Amino acid sequence: MARSTLDLSQIVSDLDKRHIKFVVIDQQMDTRTPAGKLMLNMLGVIAQFENEIRKERQMEGIKRAVLAGKFKGRKPKLSKEQVIELKKRCKLGFSQRKLAKEFGLSQSSVCSILKAVSVHLNTNKNRSHRLHSKYTKNSLQFYSQ
User: Residue 104 pLDDT > 80, yes or no?
Assistant: First the structure.
C-alpha cells in the first residue's frame, strides 16, 4: 500500500480528510480506533525495515559482483563509430534533441555521452566533473577509442 511509514501516514491522513476509514478485515484492523492506527503503523514500520534490509543486501551483492568482475552493467547503445559521429554532428551545431532522435536515444543520454567523451578526451579541463552513473571508466575507454 505504501513505500514507507511516511507514505503510509500520508495515505491514511488523506483518506481521513476525505472521511474514508481504512479497515483491514482479515486482520481486524480498523483505523477508526487508536489500536487500529497503532497496528497499522507497527506493520508499516516492520515493512519499511524489511525493505531497507533487502536493499542493503542487494547493494552488497552488487558490490561483490562488481569486484568479482561479474557485474558489468548495460552494454552501450552506440558503437564507437556512432559516438564519433555523434560528437562530429554536435560540433557542427546539431541540437541534442535532433541527435537524440537520429540515434534513438534520450536527450539526457546524448548529453551524458558528450560530457563523458569531452571530459575524458580533453586533458586541459578540470576532471572533477561527476559523470552520469551509466558511464563508468570502462565505457569511457570504449567511447574514447
Answer: yes
